[in-house]
Design a protein that fits this description.
Layout lengths: L4 E10 L2 E11 L4 E5 L6 H9 L6 E6 L2 E2 L10 E4 L11 H11 L4 H14 L15 H13 L5 E5 L7 H18 L2 E6 L2 H7 L2 E6 L2 E6 L1 H6 L4 H6 L4 E10 L3 E6 L2 E6 L10 E6 L4 E4 L9 E10 L4 E7 L4 E6 L1 H4 L6 E6 L3
Parallel strand pairs: 3-8, 3-9, 6-7, 7-8
Antiparallel strand pairs: 1-2, 1-4, 4-5, 9-10, 11-12, 11-14, 12-13, 15-19, 16-17, 16-19, 17-18
Helix pairs in contact: 2-3, 2-4
The structure holds adenosine-5'-diphosphate (ADP).
């Protein structure tokens, strides 16, 4: 299937800073796709190049099969929503949403129908005559979003649009944004440095690092099968153990960690016996017990710290080689883990 967006070997340099480095990326239509990565990794530059606000130094950008690399913003069918969501303060809600449609020269009947349809989509039917100053923060965001969607762009670009909101409203808007994307079936390309936000909304997450794609996939795969230490650390909390490959096949790997044999799921990357690997242990995937656990991978340790977090307790366990593992313990299990001695094991191993 032809992707709606394709970056082919796209590089963008500013003087001697390479913001985006030979980026290759294909985005399927109708998906919620998030560019995720630390500040400065090239997310916004990527988005701005697709919007036409920056011209790549080299490479090609395709939109629905058409080369748009050098087209100005108004000649390509994408729309962008920025962080501040600025609405026109002197225009009411209906006129704000109608703005792009008027530029397109649509008839007033067609504009009216489209505005009503969009207001219904976000349950703001009764608000068409209100001015931005008469709306709550969340309502203003919905209107700004509808203004951007009104001209029916092929891709809606969203550059950290929720970062200025307080935590509660931010969570509500995440759910709502995802629902709007599903209802409209539009392709959303969203930029954030917040992994939780990315996990909540995305069909596909593109993890970026230093101007390149580090790994791309659905949230569950990225979380459970990170292919690099960078991704393991950036998405969720990770305990990392340095080990070496002894053998294995495409699905399981036999490893040795600190002289102890360990079995782990394969990452899909080609590896040879003797290669160094990092075992990623998620805190919630560590079983803890006051006596040795049956089967393989039972590791003795000492409990160094317990931190009560309401719906779980975070426990810091020091193991034989001196490294410390963070384990997440359910409230019903914590009372049985009194004392210092503990055995830990990756759940399901
Ligand atoms: P992100 O969105 O991931 O925080 P950006 O795409 O904004 O990252 O920036 C990537 C890199 O390019 C950073 O090192 C940034 O300083 C640099 N950069 C971005 N825009 C410009 C510009 N207009 N001029 C010079 N350097 C820039």
């Amino acid at each position: 299937m032809q992707p709606v967006v394709e970056f082919a070997n796209v590089t963008k340099s500013y003087g001697n800073v390479t913001a985006v480095d030979e980026l290759n990326l294909r985005i399927e239509a109708g998906k919620f796709v998030t560019l995720l990565g630390p500040s400065g990794c090239g997310k916004s530059t990527t988005l701005r190049m697709l919007g036409g606000f920056e011209i790549p130094s080299s490479g090609r950008i395709m939109l629905a099969g058409k080369d748009v690399t050098r087209l100005p913003p108004n000649k390509r069918n994408v729309n962008i929503v920025f962080q501040d969501y600025a609405l026109f303060p002197h225009m009411d809600v209906a006129r704000n949403i109608a703005f792009g449609l008027e530029l397109q020269g649509k008839s007033s009947d067609a504009i009216h129908r489209r505005v009503m349809e969009l207001l219904e989509l976000v349950q703001l039917q009764g608000y068409s005559r209100r001015f931005p100053s008469e709306l709550s923060g969340g309502q203003r965001q919905r209107v700004a979003l509808m203004r951007a969607l009104a001209p029916d762009p092929q891709v809606l670009l969203l550059d950290e649009p929720l970062s200025a909101l307080d935590a509660k409203l931010r969570q509500q808007m995440q759910i709502e944004l995802k629902a709007i994307q599903e209802r409209t079936g539009k392709t959303f390309l969203f930029v954030t440095h917040d992994q939780e936000e990315a996990l909540t909304m995305s069909d596909t997450i593109v993890v970026m690092n230093e101007g390149r794609v580090e790994q791309m996939g659905d949230p569950k795969t990225l979380y459970s099968r990170p292919q690099s230490v960078f991704v393991a650390n950036f998405i969720g909390d990770a305990n990392l153990l340095k080990a070496r490959i002894v053998g294995g096949d495409d699905t399981r790997m036999a490893l040795t960690w600190n002289g102890t044999p360990v079995e782990a799921a394969a990452t899909g990357r080609r590896a040879q016996p003797g290669d160094p690997v990092c075992i990623v242990l998620r805190p919630e995937s560590i079983e803890c017990s006051t006596s040795p656990l049956a089967g393989a991978n039972s590791i003795p340790g000492k409990i160094r710290q317990r931190v009560f977090k309401g719906n779980h307790t975070s426990m810091l366990v020091e193991i034989a080689d001196g490294s410390r593992l963070m384990a997440l313990v359910h409230p019903t299990d914590i009372d049985s883990l009194s004392g210092e001695d503990v055995w830990v094991r990756p759940a399901g191993a």
